[in-house]
Amino acid sequence: MSSDRVSITMNRNLIYPEDARKVIDALHKVLRYDATVAVLGLAAAKSPLAGDTPDFSVGIRYGGIAEDRAVRRDAPGLLSRFSLISMVSRLERHAQLLLLQRRWIEYLGGPNKRMDGPSMLKILRRVGLESRGGPVKLCSELVVVKPSDALSNKMMWLEGIVKVRNCLAHRLGQVQMEDVKQSGMSIEDTMDDDTLKAVWMRIKPILDGKEIAGFPHVGGGNLSVGFDEYEREWRIGEQIEVTPLECQGIAMSLSFLGNQLLAEFEREMNELFGLNGKGSS
């Protein structure tokens, strides 16, 4: 097969690799959006109230001036929590879309073959069931069957972020026994000194060889951005707090992971079809 694209016809053509690349392009777009939601929390915290009366911009309120003040005070952490939850869910959703493309291509077994409705429904059901395993399984076992060492190493980081997402989404960030139990273990096996651990990615801005200690920063020079890995850990009963700056590092890290996932997805698809293309860089 000499062509570097696989065109599949149903109601529309699925074009490989362009459609896979569109999925990751879309992931970058929504990650930027979610990272900006976290930044909005800083502005919301500075948003003034009109005197000592509640904000009646919605006409009818359940809550008053005390709640308005509390929400503004908590806005950076509150919107950062929403941001992190959404970003991890975005990666999961877009990895699922790549898996759908993989199963579609595998089913047809080659280019220029028509996909009928019942077959497509069967594939959608399969992908839905497979996706229940979560983002780590999606990325390292399903979208990519034989991940590189580099991709496999990122799964420990992703697993920790997923656990944090689940705790923030289901338990409002207060760590419970469900969050600290090891994979494959039951809650009955959990000990009171078990902890939830996550490898956090910290943005490290370097200006003329020195790390910028605080923002806003005034001055120019040779600026570069790197990342430091460090482990965060929470005991049962402790509260997970996330900052807008941490959300920027998580967004960038998920973006890099999306690029690598695409590259290895293309590598495996190219090998499957004997294509000459080298995939994305």
What does this structure look like?
By secondary structure, the protein is an alpha+beta fold. It has one domain. Helices cover 54% and strands 13% of the residues. The protein contains seven helices and five strands, in the order E-E-H-H-H-H-H-H-E-E-E-H. The protein has a three-stranded antiparallel beta sheet with strand order 4-3-5. The longest helix is centred in the N-terminal third of the chain and has 44 residues. The radius of gyration is 22 Å and the shape is globular. The protein starts with 5 loop residues before the first strand and ends in an 8-residue tail after the last helix.
Low-confidence stretches: 6-11
The succession of helices and strands, N to C, reads EEHHHHHHEEEH
Main sheet specs: 3 strands, antiparallel
Overall structural class, as computed from helix and strand content, comes to alpha+beta
Q: Which descriptor suits the 3D outline?
A: globular
**Please, what is the oligomeric state?**
single chain
Strand content: 5-15%
